[in-house]
Specification:
385 residues, alpha/beta, four-stranded antiparallel β-sheet, four-stranded mixed β-sheet, disordered N terminus, binds zinc ion
Length: 385
């Protein structure tokens, strides 16, 4: 008995391991398997051994990656996708005022992004009166100034200076909002479909933001500037990526479209990451708690790129509705207290323990060519705000 027992103990693991490796090698839809209920993972697919008639075969498999988002980036995107698909059709009261010379394809792309944004955010905000959309692509600054003034808006100093190089903007005053776009005459060749779809989503989202907050908050008046620009960048990219799935692009747009949140981010981060990469985690934290990040002329690397990542991680961890309930709570209490009340954690603590780390890790992932600061992952010292 003793000898047999030893022999069994030795043989059993051998048998088990050979069975496992055999079934893994054979896991292919329709191929034979040996034990009902056994699962085998091949690549991103999980196959299950099922009984079919008298035979045991591997089923067609489930693509795990599409069911369970693995990263926070995927989780946040999945939330946006599910919300977008669940929204009913909606037509915002937008009046298009487009200069004759404007490039029609450029206009159509921005319009598609704008209307997708209106659909997505309809349960957070709907314009209650006419929303003028003015495009002066390729025309005189005077045309734009006079059309803006018809709706009670003046062109600010910055916009005048940058008129020729092009911009898009959303403005809100006590009477309503306006969307404005300008630029050099565009040729079809250099119109970047994905970026411009996101551009349309982004600027309309600023109208939504003013609607939710009850006033504009471009420079930290209600919410910090990184949340203002970072969320617009996040939703711009995420919603633009969804559009081809829904067939909402015409052929011209489709041929110029690539689904690439990642490469868009790569482009963003590549331009701006040297700033982020040059810092230690502590330095980035210190930058983010400085008052000029909330309210001042926050550089794009911080308020657009890092701000987009901070928005992404908040959405992934707490969901879209909770994110906006933080904004709503900020309308009658300072945003830091509203943050703590909404998410149950002090803002500085969250930034030190979650936010900055996420920005640092994502930045080094998308742009590994540049080595990160050796202290980019170091534990951050913080005092509660
Ligand atoms: Zn913006």
């Amino acid at each position: 008995m003793k000898i047999r027992l030893i022999a069994l103990l030795v043989i059993t693991p051998l048998l088990l391991s050979s069975q496992l490796s055999t079934s893994h090698a054979a896991a292919k839809a329709g191929a034979k398997c040996s034990t009902v209920g056994v699962k085998s993972v091949v690549g991103t697919k999980t196959f299950t051994c099922v009984k079919s008639g008298k035979k045991l075969i591997w089923d067609k498999g489930v693509n795990k990656a599409t069911l369970i988002p693995k990263t926070r980036e995927e989780k946040a995107f999945e939330l946006v996708r599910a919300a977008y698909l669940a929204k009913p059709a909606y037509k915002a009261p937008i009046t298009y005022v487009v200069a004759e010379k404007s490039n029609q394809s450029f206009f159509q792309i921005i319009k598609t992004g704008t209307e997708a944004s209106a659909k997505f955010f309809q349960n957070y905000y709907k314009p209650h009166s006419e929303l003028p959309f003015i495009m002066a692509d390729g025309v005189d600054i005077e045309w734009m100034i006079s059309n803006m003034s018809k709706y009670g808006f003046e062109m600010d100093h910055w916009s005048r200076g940058a008129f020729k190089s092009g911009w898009g903007n959303a403005h809100t005053n006590s009477k309503g909002s306006i969307l404005v776009y300008t630029g050099m005459p565009s040729t079809e060749k250099n119109i970047y479909a994905f970026g411009n779809l996101g551009f349309g989503v982004h600027e309309y989202f600023h109208v939504v933001t003013a609607g939710i907050l009850g006033k504009e908050s471009k420079f930290g008046e209600v919410i910090p500037r990184w949340a203002y620009e970072g969320s617009a960048s996040f939703f711009g990219n995420a919603i633009a990526e969804l559009l081809p799935e829904k067939g909402e692009l015409d052929m011209w747009q489709k041929t110029r479209f690539k689904t690439f949140t990642k490469s868009m981010r790569y482009y963003n981060v590549k331009e701006r990451v040297p700033v982020l990469h040059s810092l230690s985690s502590q330095q980035l934290y210190n930058t983010f708690i400085a008052p000029e990040i909330d309210a001042g002329t926050c550089p794009q690397a911080y308020c657009y790129t890092a701000g987009e990542l901070l928005t992404e991680v908040l959405l992934a961890d707490y969901g879209i509705d909770k994110y906006f309930s933080w904004w709503r709570a900020s309308t009658n209490t300072p945003w830091r207290s509203a943050f703590e009340k909404t998410f149950g954690i002090n803002f500085n603590q969250w930034l030190a323990e979650v936010g900055i780390l996420y920005v640092m890790e994502e930045a080094s992932k998308v742009y590994p060519e540049q080595p990160a600061n050796p202290d980019y992952k170091k534990k951050i010292e913080f005092t509660k705000s």
